[in-house]
Amino acid sequence: MTQKFDIIIIGGGNAGFGVSAVAHDAGKSIAFIEERDFGGTCPNRGCTPKKVLVAAAHALHEIETANAHCIEVGKPKLDWSALIRREKAMIDFIPDAMGDLAAKRGTVFRGRGAFTGPNSVEVNGQELTADSIVIATGSRPRQLPIPGAEYMITSDEVLSDENQPKEVVFIGGGVIAMEFSHVYARAGTKVTILEAMPQLLPRMDVDTVNVIKAESERLGIVIHTGVKVEEITKDGETLSVKYSINDQDHVVAVDRIVNGAGRIANTDGLNLDVAGIEHDGIAIKVDEIMRSVSNPSIWVAGDALVNTPQLSPVATHEGRLIGKAIVSGSGQSADFSGLPSCVYTVPAISTVGLTEAEAHSKGIDFRVSKNDMTGWFSGKSYAESAAWAKVLIDNETDQFLGAHMVGHQGEDLIHLFAMAMQHKITAAEFQASHFAFPTFSSDAKNLF
Ligand SMILES: Cc1cc2nc3c(=O)[nH]c(=O)nc-3n(C[C@H](O)[C@H](O)[C@H](O)COP(=O)(O)OP(=O)(O)OC[C@H]3O[C@@H](n4cnc5c(N)ncnc54)[C@H](O)[C@@H]3O)c2cc1C
Ligand SMILES: NC(=O)c1ccc[n+]([C@@H]2O[C@H](COP(=O)([O-])OP(=O)(O)OC[C@H]3O[C@@H](n4cnc5c(N)ncnc54)[C@H](O)[C@@H]3O)[C@@H](O)[C@H]2O)c1
């Protein structure tokens, strides 16, 4: 028998929970469908477990700098399998806890949902209908069309395999590759990154990337850019990647190859056509309020939505906006211009707003200041191996256009710039504010 709801949510990650929070508060009936673990990628296979490994890398980094503080320490040894068990133990309650929360907000259906019509979805043979259906199905690693692609593992296995590899190749030099490289390298694994574009982290500010590149190479990470990966072969336990740079062939042999070549939206198995949802195979065509242009009952949020950043706060925000739009009958577009994000290398990259190249391409009249803080009192006190920042300010409005940092507690400091951007606080007002001294935050006033 068909069950009728106000809203069907397909996918129980950040985006789905964003929708459910608002819709539940408004008294809407919800069908909440999840085929794997409630909570989705971020707490089960992404941000949260990843940060446990990053925290260990931080500890190793602190030990490396102990000598500068006149502390004698021996060579540390990381027990990789124990670290993976610590990580797993920290998150093992999440699927059940999030499942319980989902059940408080709606009726839970376990299994893979797919459309059977413009307003109907089937899960495990059960047909559900609703006035509004939200596609919040997340993303998965993009498969590479090369021979031997099946030998690659993904971030899921990096976070699960208790055996520490001796040598690893990352195909792709994006966020996942950079974060796990820093953990592996500090743990003693030899790392090679093969990036197709001329620059690592191609969408980020070039000077900022150059600082983290130098720091990564200092750790022994081998980085090749402008690479064409040709094929992967397996001989016993040894995996070889054949690649070329400027038509010169090279081979690197390792015991693990990680796919770090980006993630694509999970939309292809949803039977979009039977629901009259316009798409190009992956990207669902939506308007500015994230609603399907061809079926007004359908909404898309989070990683399933192509063209907004694949970040968990973005997924939650988009889900909440869609929840509000469904409940109120009037939608709102998302504004991510003041959105901060970090790449959790050690030290981290922290960024908000426009890169210098983007500001130039928009023809904005702006000033830019760059600082290397390793020689500043705070940088020296904490023996920072990299501490660097770039701040962009609009000359007309005196407002921040962007800020990009490596190290110097940028993971926290970046929120000062993000708040200033979101609330249009000028550079002069920022400098006139009170800050505790001496703190890394008080350094922020001297970065521009
Ligand atoms: C290794 C890694 C580290 C990351 N680190 C960070 C970080 O530090 N900070 C940050 O902001 N972001 C990070 N991200 C990105 C972040 O995890 C995602 O942007 C976020 O989880 C997306 O949320 P979502 O709800 O759109 O999708 P998901 O959380 O992936 O949820 C989608 C859910 O839908 C389910 N599903 C899919 N298809 C169906 C179907 N047909 N029927 C039923 N259920 C279905 C899936 O099982 C899944 O649970 C990281 C990602 C990875 C992979
Ligand atoms: N700290 C965080 O916020 C965080 C951490 C991890 C992941 N994430 C999210 O997950 C998403 C996926 O991460 P990711 O690192 O896989 O993707 P990414 O988009 O950050 O990087 C993918 C990289 O692979 C390169 N590439 C693509 N095809 C290639 C090929 N054939 N050979 C060599 N290089 C190739 C791209 O040029 C790009 O630099 C990111 O977009 C990010 O938003 C966020």
Structural class: alpha/beta
Per the CATH scheme, the topology name of the largest domain is FAD/NAD(P)-binding domain
What's the number of extended β-strand segments?
Answer: 21
Mean pLDDT: 98
Pfam family, one: Pyr_redox_dim
Family: Belongs to the class-I pyridine nucleotide-disulfide oxidoreductase family.
Cofactor: FAD
Protein name: NAD(P)/FAD-dependent oxidoreductase
Give a quick rundown of the structure.
The chain has 448 residues and is α/β, with parallel strands linked by helices.
Describe it:
- This protein has 448 residues and is of the alpha/beta class.
- The chain folds into 3 domains: 3-141 and 264-328, 3-Layer(bba) Sandwich (FAD/NAD(P)-binding domain); 149-261, 3-Layer(bba) Sandwich (FAD/NAD(P)-binding domain), CATH 3.50.50.60; 340-446, Enolase-like, domain 1.
- Helices cover 31% and strands 26% of the residues.
- The protein is built from 14 helices and 21 strands.
- Strands 1, 2, 3, 4, 5, 6 and 16 form a 7-stranded mixed β-sheet that branches.
- A hairpin with a 5-residue loop joins strand 17 (340-343) and strand 18.
- Helix 1 runs parallel beside helix 9 and helix 3 crosses helix 7.
- The chain is globular, with a radius of gyration of 23 Å.
- The mean pLDDT is 98.
- Bound molecules: flavin-adenine dinucleotide and nicotinamide-adenine-dinucleotide (NAD).
- InterPro entries: FAD/NAD-bd_sf, FAD/NAD-binding_dom, FAD/NAD-linked_Rdtase_dimer_sf, Pyr_nuc-diS_OxRdtase, Pyr_nucl-diS_OxRdtase_dimer.
- Belongs to the class-I pyridine nucleotide-disulfide oxidoreductase family.
- Its cofactor is FAD.
- Keywords: FAD, Flavoprotein.
- Residues 5-319 form the FAD/NAD(P)-binding domain.
